[in-house]
Design the sequence.
């Protein structure tokens, strides 16, 4: 496959006289795709039922005439002002009971049937007009579900929908009372219509109640998306896409992804480092203008799975953003590095956000490829360079990795509902495992917890996988891979209660958790041979062989030839040791990469990305600051 480049464009923001030269310049830069329309509802339907498509027709004509492929979006992320007059109760409500008002974007509750019907209606109007249009090569539905914390809504319509969802799931209210353990604190219900949303309670609500609400909230997103999928499927054969985000876990992306053809995500490496990642000051200082060396790759690997192999970067940071606490500019070379890293992980398209910086409104300080005065911004030259290099490098192939990491959205909801320690965050745990695998030079596939075929994998990691279907455990045991499970893997039921059988439920291992402890960052427990346990430790007993223990003699890791159970949260050194041990047992070659250098294999091509602001050496070679290197067998083909 040969990857291509794209750009996000807003014809409605610019004088029509500029469109043709914009389109020509896009093509000159080496851009193939242009995404339009996701925020344009007020310009398409200024008054309910009165449509003004002529400007969009002309924009599509100009872009397509220049040779660009159009990604058309449904505009349902930005309902116009009149819609709120039509449906005053369509706004989402926050946990304090306050409506999240009009005046920015994503101001809707996923449970509002009237709004959903209006979304279906505008999608149908767009599909009728452009569904068979050969200039439209893909559709994006809505924009960034979950952005600005918008999945969970405590509105009246959400409560009514939740009660229906509960009725479907439990059938009768006694079954719900039993499943949730409502006898505790006399929380028993007589009827489904008594059950409120789990906010504004005196102290914490029942975790089973919260977990049910989290599952319901995720299901509402799947249903909302499906309405538009159904309309578009009837009108077009081109791929349907959604643009997901970084570290948003409030809905099950795998379930939304089942209905779509391609997963895409919006990659803002520098914004994420300051806004969305834990990390000590030294790490954040070292990568301030490059982004975390593993954050992008993690999401590339995740969305490759969500897209069932097909994925894009729909929005790539091109310069400083406006929304993080601090917004430094990328170092020279980073826009190119991020683009190539996505391509090396299999991105079909890398699309920059946005063509030209807007001189007005909320994002006027957010860079584009062009400055507001039309002169090129720093990212432009690097995008053009990537386009040329793609042409020189030719096609790349993706092959299955040796290592799989199981990622499961409901596990995040479970540990978020019942963290039992301030630092127990599912993403943080999974990401610490992912980082350790990458530091060892490994390429990784992220897979859903529903996957049952492990053929070809030598190592499978499943940290923190909350509830597991016993078939997953037995299939893992039957596979040729070494499975590394825990901490907290298979320790709760679907209803967030302790399972009746001895836990954790790991097929073939005799291991019990006698108790679980969490502790603050000031407390660590040293492990024999190096490294420490941080945040979390389970007291393990049972007859399975002990593979690692603390200096105090407590079991850290236990297991046999096929499965290991890790009862602790390792620090960086301990993760490195653990990955090294597991790789050795699985027959995998590892290395110790310098800070900031990361590898990725794409078929016969080996890539190295140096996220460091200085050159680093590895394997007798020097890698320049912020550089991309690629080898095809012995020859360097990119530098
Ligand atoms: C994304 C969003 C874009 C734009 C961008 C700014 O989250 O999809 O519309 O707001 O962030 O970085």
Sequence:
């Amino acid at each position: 496959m040969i990857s291509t480049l794209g750009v996000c464009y807003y014809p409605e923001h610019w004088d029509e006289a500029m469109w043709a030269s914009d389109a020509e310049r896009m093509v000159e830069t080496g851009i193939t795709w242009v995404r339009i329309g996701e925020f344009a509802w007020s310009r398409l339907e200024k008054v309910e039922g009165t449509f003004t498509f002529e400007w969009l027709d002309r924009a599509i004509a100009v872009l397509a005439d220049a040779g660009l492929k159009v990604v058309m979006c449904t505009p349902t992320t930005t309902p116009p002002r009149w819609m709120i007059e039509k449906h005053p109760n369509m706004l989402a409500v926050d946990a304090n009971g306050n409506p999240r008002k009009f005046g920015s974007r994503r101001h809707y509750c996923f449970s509002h049937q009237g709004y959903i019907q209006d979304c279906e209606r505008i999608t149908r109007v767009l599909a009728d007009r452009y569904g068979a249009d050969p200039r439209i090569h893909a559709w994006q539905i809505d924009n960034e579900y979950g952005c600005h914390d918008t999945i969970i809504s405590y509105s009246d319509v959400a409560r009514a929908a939740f009660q229906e969802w509960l009725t479907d799931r439990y059938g009768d209210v006694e079954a719900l009372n039993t499943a949730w353990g409502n006898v505790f604190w006399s929380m028993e219900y007589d009827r489904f219509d008594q059950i409120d949303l789990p906010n504004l309670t005196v102290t914490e609500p029942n975790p089973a109640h919260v977990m049910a609400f989290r599952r319901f909230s995720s299901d509402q997103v799947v249903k909302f998306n499906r309405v538009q999928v159904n309309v578009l499927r009837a009108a077009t054969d081109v791929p349907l896409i959604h643009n997901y985000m970084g570290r948003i876990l409030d809905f099950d992306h795998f379930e939304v992804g089942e209905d779509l053809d391609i997963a895409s995500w919006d990659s803002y490496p520098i914004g994420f480092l300051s806004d969305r990642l834990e990390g000590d000051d030294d790490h954040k200082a070292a990568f301030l203008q490059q982004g975390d060396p593993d954050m992008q790759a993690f999401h590339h690997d995740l969305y490759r799975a969500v897209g069932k192999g097909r994925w894009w970067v729909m929005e790539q940071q091109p310069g400083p953003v406006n929304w993080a606490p601090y917004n430094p500019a990328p170092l020279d070379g980073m826009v190119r590095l991020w683009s190539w890293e996505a391509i090396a992980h299999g991105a079909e398209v890398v699309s920059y956000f946005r063509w030209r910086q807007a001189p007005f409104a909320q994002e006027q300080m957010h860079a584009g490829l062009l400055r507001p005065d039309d002169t090129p911004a720093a990212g432009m030259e690097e995008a053009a360079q990537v386009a040329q290099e793609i042409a020189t490098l030719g096609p790349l192939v993706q092959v299955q990795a040796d290592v799989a990491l199981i990622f499961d959205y409901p596990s995040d909801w479970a540990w978020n509902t019942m963290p039992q320690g301030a630092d127990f965050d599912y993403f943080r745990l999974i990401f610490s495992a992912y980082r350790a695998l990458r530091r060892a030079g490994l390429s990784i596939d992220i897979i859903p917890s529903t996957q049952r075929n492990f053929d070809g994998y030598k190592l499978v990691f499943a940290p923190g996988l909350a509830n597991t279907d016993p078939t997953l455990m037995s299939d893992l045991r039957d596979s040729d891979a070494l499975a590394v499970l825990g901490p907290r893997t298979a320790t709760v039921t679907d209803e967030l209660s302790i399972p009746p059988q001895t836990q954790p439920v790991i097929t073939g291992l005799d291991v019990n958790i006698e108790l679980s402890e969490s502790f603050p960052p000031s407390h660590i427990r040293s492990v024999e041979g190096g490294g420490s346990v941080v945040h979390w430790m389970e007291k393990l007993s049972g007859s399975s062989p002990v593979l690692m223990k603390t200096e105090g003699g407590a079991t850290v890791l236990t297991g046999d030839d096929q499965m290991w159970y890790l009862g602790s949260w390792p620090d960086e050194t301990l993760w490195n040791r653990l990955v090294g041990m597991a790789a050795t047992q699985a027959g995998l070659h590892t290395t110790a990469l310098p800070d900031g250098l990361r590898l990725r294999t794409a078929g016969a091509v080996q890539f190295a990305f140096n996220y460091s602001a200085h050159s680093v050496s590895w394997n007798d070679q020097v890698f320049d600051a912020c550089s991309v290197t690629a080898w095809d067998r012995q020859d360097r083909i990119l530098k």
Residues 152 and 413 are 12 Å apart (CA to CA). The chain has a mean pLDDT of 96. Residues 143-144, 147, 266, 268, 315, 321, 323, 353, 363, 366 surround beta-D-galactopyranose (CB under 6 Å).
